[in-house]
Structures are given as C-alpha cells and as structure tokens.
C-alpha cells in the first residue's frame, strides 16, 4: 500500500513538472513568434504612449529577423515571411548604432521617400502633412512632466491620423535637411516631436532587419512614476482608461 502511494506521489509530481515545462515552452513560443510585452520608459511617444504603459508588440506583423529571437543569434540574414510596415505604424525596433537597445517610434518614411521638417511642419515627398490644433496635454509623471503642451492632430496621406506634441516651435528638430530613405530602410519619428531621439538625429535610417514588431495594444498602465512592484499603489495610480486600448 505504501509503495503504491509513493508511486502515485512520484507520478503526480512528474505530471506537475511536465505541466510547468509545457507552460514555459508555450510562453517562450508565444513571446518569440507572436506577441512580446514591452514597457514604455520615456516620453518620446507622448501623447500616444505614456511612461508606465505596458504594451504587446505583434512580432509576426513584419515577419522575422534574428532580432525576433532571444539573444539575436546569427542564424540568417534579413527577414523571413517579410511584409512592409505601413506609414504611421508604431514600431519597436533595435537601435541601429547599438542593437542591444530597443526603441519605439512611428514609421514616417518608407524606402524611397523624401522626408523633411520645415518650421515644425512635416513634409513627406514634398507634400505637407495636414496638421490641426487638438487641445493641450499634461503628463502625469515626474520624468517628462510637460505643462499644457500644445497638441496637433496629423493626418498622413494614407489616412492614418494621430496626435503629436510641439512644446517648442523652434527646436532643433523643427527644421531639418531633406532625408532620402534608402531601400530596405525606414525613417522613424517620435510623436513628442521636441523630445524624441529619432531618425532626424542619432537613430538614422532603420534597416528592415532591425524591426521587432508593431505595437498593437496597451494591456496595463501605471501613472505617477508608480513601480510595477508596488502593488499597493496600483488602485490609486492605474490608468483605467488605457487598459486594453489599441495603439494607433
């Protein structure tokens, strides 16, 4: 009898171990192939994405490169099952000068496009992007706390529209040279136009291989510099209206 009980216990323990291993493998597959969570650490994409937003990134949206895999092994060059981003997509990519760092910006220029900013107005292929005032914005964090920052609604030629911030009408990013996007590369900009390190500056053109995926949904959001581990602060600092909100 005792021997049977021990066998049942061993069998039950092994079943539990198998379930845990299967769950871990499934999590790795989902994270590697389908969706990967990211957190937003800076205000470069405000007001679209805020510091403290937690997002899911669709990794199969543009196919896969070595940067889609854990530790970025050199198994192949370029992308497999590749598809092109659309102008206006919000994308996570590897920072070209240091691919160990993830960046998130909006696709503004596609291969062959001409991009320039003149007096704060974005031009794509010599056509001014429609830009209209859309109220004021104030952040709820201490790292990038803008007070009554002007918001402008921009509409791209494909109909994608989104809000941008323009705190300083004469910042160094408000007048740029003309950029010609090379084949196999993309031009990225942050929606917080005066506070974004992007393709206007040190990011440069982003190779297609560096794309990780398209930001698809905010699944959690904490304001007021609240740490994720401070669970007791969640009720007072959760941004309830942002949970399960799509990224546009």
Q: Can you walk me through this structure?
A:
With 248 residues, the chain is an alpha+beta fold. The chain has one domain (36-246): Umud Fragment, subunit A, CATH 2.10.109.10. It has 2 helices and 15 strands. Strands 1, 2, 3, 4, 12, 13, 14 and 15 form an 8-stranded antiparallel β-sheet that branches. A 4-stranded antiparallel β-sheet has the order 7-6-5-11, with no helix packed on it. It has a 3-stranded antiparallel β-sheet with strand order 8-9-10, with no helix packed on it. Strand 5 (114-118) and strand 6 form a beta hairpin. The longest helix has 33 residues, at 2-34. It is globular, with a radius of gyration of 22 Å. The mean pLDDT is 87.
Domain count: 1
The largest sheet is: 8 strands, antiparallel
**In percent terms, what proportion of residues is strand?**
25-35%
Radius of gyration: 22 Å
Roughly what is the average pLDDT, rounded to an integer? 87
H/E order of the elements? HEEEEEEEEEEEEEEHE
Shape: globular
User: What is the count of DSSP helices, taking H or I runs of 4+ residues?
Assistant: 2
Search tags:
single chain, 248 residues, alpha+beta, Umud Fragment, subunit A, 8-stranded antiparallel beta sheet, 4-stranded antiparallel beta sheet, 2 helices, 15 strands, 15% helix, globular
Brief summary of the model shown:
The chain has 248 residues and is of the alpha+beta class.
Summarize the helices and strands and which ones pair or pack.
Elements: H1 2-34, E1 35-39, E2 53-58, E3 90-94, E4 102-109, E5 114-118, E6 121-124, E7 127-128, E8 130-137, E9 149-155, E10 161-165, E11 179-180, E12 185-189, E13 206-207, E14 211-221, H2 234-237, E15 245-246
Antiparallel strand pairs: 1-2, 2-14, 3-4, 3-14, 4-12, 5-6, 5-11, 6-7, 8-9, 9-10, 12-13, 14-15
């Amino acid at each position: 009898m005792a021997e049977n009980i021990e066998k049942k216990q061993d069998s039950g323990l092994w079943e539990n171990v198998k379930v845990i291993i299967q769950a871990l493998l499934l999590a790795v597959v989902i994270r590697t192939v389908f969706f990967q969570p990211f957190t937003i650490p800076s205000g470069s994409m405000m007001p679209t994405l805020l510091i403290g937003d937690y997002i899911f990134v669709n990794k199969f949206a543009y196919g896969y490169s070595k940067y889609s895999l854990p530790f970025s092994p050199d198994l192949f060059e370029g992308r497999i099952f590749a598809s092109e981003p659309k102008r206006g997509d919000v994308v996570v990519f590897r920072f070209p000068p240091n691919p160990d760092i993830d960046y998130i910006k909006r696709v503004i220029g596609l291969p062959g496009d001409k991009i320039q900013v003149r007096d704060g107005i974005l031009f794509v292929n010599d056509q001014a992007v429609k830009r209209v005032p859309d109220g004021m914005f104030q952040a709820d964090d201490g790292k990038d706390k803008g007070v009554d920052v002007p918001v402008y609604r921009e509409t791209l030629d494909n109909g994608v529209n989104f809000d941008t911030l323009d705190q300083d009408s004469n910042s160094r990013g408000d007048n740029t040279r003309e950029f010609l996007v090379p084949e196999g590369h993309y031009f990225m900009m942050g929606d917080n136009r005066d506070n974004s390190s992007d393709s206007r500056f040190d990011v440069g053109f982003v190779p297609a291989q560096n794309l990780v995926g398209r930001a698809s949904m905010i699944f959690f959001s904490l304001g007021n510099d609240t740490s994720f581990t401070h669970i007791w602060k969640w009720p007072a600092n959760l941004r309830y209206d942002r949970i399960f909100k799509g990224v546009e």
